[in-house]
Write a structure and sequence with these properties.
Blueprint (H helix, E strand, L loop, with lengths): L1 H24 L3 E2 L12 E2 L2 H16 L8 H20 L4 H16 L20 H22 L5 H19 L3 H21 L8 H26 L9 H9 L1 H16 L12 H7 L4 H22 L1
Antiparallel strand pairs: 1-2
């Protein structure tokens, strides 16, 4: 199954330079100067196209068949968010329009796609969920994680590096549980992200834009839900450690989750929209402290890795 990773990596690595060339030729830049823009040079922001193409072509070409995760719902959701992200990268999309489309995608995945939580496995002393509660909670989780990755895509390399780490860990966990089809999804995305990182690390030659960050968030949210459910079927979430699966997901996604909460909660307390942008994200605060883009990304990835290691050792 590692050929999924290799194939996706090479597709991404080979097509990103062409996307950079087209963006420069057509003058499709993310221009500096806006209050929330911290880069100083005009930079193409269509790298998400390369990530999307690498990921989807790999899954379709190399084959994928898993009754618990039907490819048609997965790819339909990816395509819808790809179109949304592309429009946002090119012309902009309002927050409520974006949220509405994300809601449609989440409902598509949870109801006909049946990608949802059936239980909290003892977390907060809650076990089985009713159908409506399951749908509602799963939709909220999907939307939250999608936006969490969208929000951490604020400096060179961060979203791609965190996404790579998350999906390599998810892949390892799925392989351990013999959920090989789910592992191939994670490896396909991780390969595409590593191929993209070559051009996104400081000084970034291209940004992934919403086209890429929304895709990473979507697949991360789906894999989080699938891991929690699969861990019970495999026997990892026993009565002695019932909440270990949700806790492991929290550890894997600790950076985007904590960063999003750290900006959403103050905004809500101050009577502002949670989607109103500012420069109070953890990576922005680290830049203000004098860290470079590369140093900030490295520190946050290492922090995420340490949290994952602690979860693996103690859960």
């Amino acid at each position: 199954m590692y050929h999924f990773f290799i194939f996706s990596f090479f597709i991404s690595y080979l097509i990103i330079p062409s996307i950079i060339h087209v963006a420069k030729t057509r003058n499709l830049y993310d221009e500096p100067g806006h209050l929330l823009k911290i880069h100083t040079q005009p930079t193409p922001r269509l790298g998400g196209i390369g990530i999307f193409v690498s990921f989807t072509v790999t899954l379709l070409l190399l084959g994928f068949n898993n009754p618990s995760l039907e490819l048609n719902y997965l790819l339909t959701a990816c395509i819808i968010l790809f179109v949304l992200g592309l429009k946002d990268d090119l012309t902009g999309v309002g927050h409520y329009t974006k949220l509405s489309v994300e809601l449609i995608v989440a409902l598509l995945l949870t109801i006909p796609g049946n990608i949802r939580l059936g239980s909290l496995h003892g977390l907060f002393n809650i076990y089985e969920l009713s159908y409506c509660s399951s749908i509602l909670l799963s939709v909220l989780i999907l939307i939250f994680i999608v936006n969490a990755f969208n929000l951490i895509d604020g400096i060179d390399g961060l979203a791609a590096a965190i996404g790579t780490l998350a999906h390599l860990i998810f892949a390892a966990l799925f392989i351990y549980m013999r959920q090989f089809e789910l592992a191939t999804v994670c490896l396909s995305l991780a390969g595409a992200l590593i191929g993209f990182l070559k051009f996104n690390l400081t000084p970034a030659r291209i940004f992934m834009g919403d086209t890429g960050s929304l895709l990473i968030g979507l697949i991360s949210a789906i894999m989080a839900l699938k891991y929690i459910e699969a861990s019970t079927a495999y026997g990892l979430a026993t009565s002695a450690n019932a909440s270990s699966a949700p806790a492991m997901v929290l550890a894997i996604l600790i950076v985007p989750i904590t960063d999003t909460l750290s900006v959403f909660i103050p905004r809500l307390l101050n009577g502002k929209s949670p989607f109103q942008g500012d420069l109070n994200h953890v990576h922005h605060l680290m830049l203000k402290r004098g860290f470079s883009h590369l140093q900030t990304t490295t520190i946050l990835v290492l922090f995420n890795g340490v949290i994952i290691l602690m979860a693996l050792l103690f859960l």
